[in-house]
Amino acid sequence: MQTSSSQPARLRRKESFLGLHFDFHAREESTAVGKDVTPAMVEHIIEMVQPDFVQCDCKGHQGYASYPTNVGYRALGIVKDTLEIWREVTARRGVALFMHYSGVLDEMAVKHHPDWARVDEQGKVDPHTTSVFGPYVDELLIPQLKELNDVYGVDGVWIDGDNWASKNDYRAEVIAAFQAQTGIQEIPHAPTDPYYYEFSQFCREGFRQYLRHYVDELHKHNPDFQICSNWSFSAKMPEPVSAGVDFLSGDFWLQNSVNGARLEARGLRHQGLPWDLMTWSFGGQHTNENQEDFSTKSVIQLQREAAIVLALSGGFQMYFQQDRNGAIFPWQMEVAREVAQFCRARQEICHRAEPIPQIALYYAGSTFYRQTNVHFEAYDGTLKPLQGVLQVLLDNQYSTDVLMEHQLKGHTADYPLIVIPEWNRLEQDQIEELLAYVHNGGNLLLVGPQTASPFADALQVELTDATQEQQPIYLEHAGRLARLKAANAQVRLKGSAQAFGRWYPSNNTTLPSSHAASITTYGQGKIAATYFNVGQRYLESTTTVVRDFMHALINALFPEPLATVTGSHLVDVTLNRSHGKIAINLVNTAGPHADDKVHVFDEIPVVGPLTITVRCEEQPQRITSQPAGSELPFTWSEGKATLTLPRLEIHEVIIVE
C-alpha cells in the first residue's frame, strides 16, 4: 500500500519533537493479531495525543512479524493486517509512521537458519542472536525492510535489539578473519584471557560494518527512508557517528528513569544528529519467573521524565505496550494526552536549544571499551563511576555536559571546568591535551587516585600506598564525617600544591588524617584531584558530606558559573541559549524516582523558594518564567541579576532577555 501525493505532508524525524511508541513483540502464542485493531483506534490515538510520529510493532525479538510479511516469519495467527491500518490512518492524518523492528535479536531467524546465528564462547549456536558476520542481514533484514518501504510506504525504522545485543562471535570464519588480520592465534573466551579486548574490538567493528551495510543499502533503495539503530552512538556506544543513520534514539531505564535520562540525554546531545529519547510509560520489574510486573506510571511521573529530556533540548517519545492482539489500551491515551500537552507547552523554548558550556564531564570512550566486558552496554557496572560523578555535579546544581573524547577534542577551551571521573587509563594524547588546556587557563578536576596518577607532576604531588581495593575511609567536611568505601591513596604534597580537606581511617577526628584532595596552579590555570574514588560510592550510597565536599572543591576551581541556584539540592540546572536568550532549565528531582520498590507515584514534593543569580554583561530588560510567561522581579548589582522563584513543581525555564 503506497501513500498518495495528495495526502498531507509528514514531518521528517529531524523536524519532529513528540512521538508515541507501541510494541508487543509477537510470540508463538500470538494467535489473534489484529483482532481489535481498527482505524478508529488509530484515529483515537492521533486525536488524543497529536504526535509528530508513531512507532509501532512489526517484528520483535522473538522474530515473528506482526504483519503478513512475504519475507520473514509471520505470527501464527494474523487475522487482520494491522500495519495497513496504521499506515492508512497516519498518512491521512499527516503523521509519520516508523517501525519497531528487532535487528540482531531474532529467534525465528536462528531457529530456521542455525547457520545465521552467532556462536557463543562455548562453541554453541546462540538461540537468540544472529551473527553480524553472517548472511542474515542480506537474506532477511534488508529484504524485509525493503518490503516495509515498498508495500506499506512507512517513513522509516527504529531498529531495536541491535548494538546492545551484539556480542563476541566465535563462528569459524570470524576466528579465521581475526587471526589473519591481527596475527593473534590464541582466541580468548573469557574477559580474563589474553587478547579479549582485541577480539572484542574486532567484533565491535563487525557490528559497525553490519550497520553501515544495511543503512547504505536501504538508502540506495530509497534515500528518504529514515533509519535509526536504537542506542547506536549513544553513551552505550561512545564514539563518533560512523554510519549514515538519519537520527539517534534510545529507550531509557524502566525504573530509576530520572537518573537514566540524566545520563542518556547527555550521551546523545553532542553527537551532531537529531535525537530523541523514549520513556517507558510503565514502572515495575520482571519477576523471578520472568513474568512482567508492570503498572502504568502517573502523569506527573512521566512529565518529570520528559522534563529531563526537554531541558537538554531533545525530542521525546512515550512507549505504551500493546495488547497481545496488537490493540492499544484506550484509557492510557488520556495519560499520554496530558504528558503531550506538558511537552508541547515547552517545545518552542526547549527543542534544539543550544547548550551554554559550563562543566564538561569527560567520557573516555576508548577506556570504556577496555573496561567493559560487553560490546555496547554497561550491564557490568563500567559506567557507574561516570554516573555517580554526574549525579554529584547535578545534585550541586551545576549545569553539566557529558562529552566523549571526539566531542571535547579541540573544544576544551569552551569549558571553564573539565572533570575527569575514575577512568583506569587515559591515552597520552588525551593527557597532553588536558594539560595544555590547564596551562592556557582552564581548570581541571581529577577524581580518584588512579585518574590523578598520570598528572602527578602537574599536581605537584607524590602518590603512595595507592590501592584499587574498596577500603573504608571517613571523609570530613564542615565538621561532619561520612563513611565511604572506596579506592584511595596517601599523598605527599610538593611545591605549591595546597591541601584540600581530610579523611580519617575511622569515625574519630582525633586520629591521624590524610589529604582528601589538593589544588595547585599549572600555567595560567588550576588542577585539582581527589585521592579517593567518588562516583560509584555516591551513586550507590549517597551522603551529604560527599556532595558538599565536592561542591566546595569545585567552587575553588570554578567560583563563578553563569548561573547559581540555591534553596534546594533537588533541582537539576541546565543552561541553554534559546532564540538568542539565556534559558535556565530547572527540573525538580524530588520524590522516590530512584526507589526500585516504588513503581508508580503521583506526588512530587514542591521545592522552593529558589534564589537564582545570573551573570549578565548588561542589565536584563526582563526575566520570565516559562511556559507560563510570568515576569519575575529581580535586582541588579555588579553584573549580576538576582531573583527568587517561589516554587518549582516539575519544570520551569527562566528566560533572561
From TrEMBL:
Protein name: Beta-galactosidase trimerisation domain-containing protein
CDD domains for the chain: A4_beta-galactosidase_middle_domain
